[in-house]
Amino acid sequence: MDKKLVYFLCTGNSCRSQIADGFLSRLGSERYEVHSAGLEAHGLNPRAVQVMKEAGVDISSNTSNVIDPELLNRADYVITLCGHADEHCPVIANPSVTKWHWGFDDPAKATGTEEEIMAQFRKVRDEIKGRVEKFLVEGR
After folding, report:
1. Distance (Å, whole) CA 79 – CA 139
2. Structure pTM?
3. Which helix (H) or strand (E) holds 5?
């Protein structure tokens, strides 16, 4: 069975797209080839790595990547995770690509104590996990 290619996009490929990549890679790797990228590469956010580790998913070896046009046009699904990436996503030349927008708050913009910031990272992580699980069940 050919795996469908899912390409998660965000602005910096540091948090949300990495979390989505981690969950879909863990939960759906037998059905999907998973990649993530950003309009820019901001580096992997250490708090994202930490909250994913708490959830039993290791993304510490992931890299922060800039959108690859070849992958973009080969993808079956292009899923943006922030409004900025949705609005500024490069033109997808392949008409058979399915593009969706799953909007989530940016945990990297959370303020407050370290505990409050980590709580925001955990909240977004759990929301993304729920959305990935829905995708695996419904295919959308």
Report:
1. 12
2. 0.94
3. strand 4-10
**Is residue 15 annotated as part of the catalytic site, yes or no?**
no
Distance of CA 68 to the CA centre of its chain: 15
Tokens of 72: 């973009």
- 10 catalytic per annotation: yes
Local structure of 102: helix, strand or coil: coil
Q: What gap in Å lies between CA 140 and CA 138, rounded to an integer?
A: 5
Q: Which of 6, 10, 15, 44 is catalytic?
A: 10
Please, what are the domains in the chain?
Answer: 4-138 (3.40.50.2300)
pLDDT, tens only, 31-45 = 999 999 998 888 999
Among 71, 89, 110, 119, the active-site one is 89
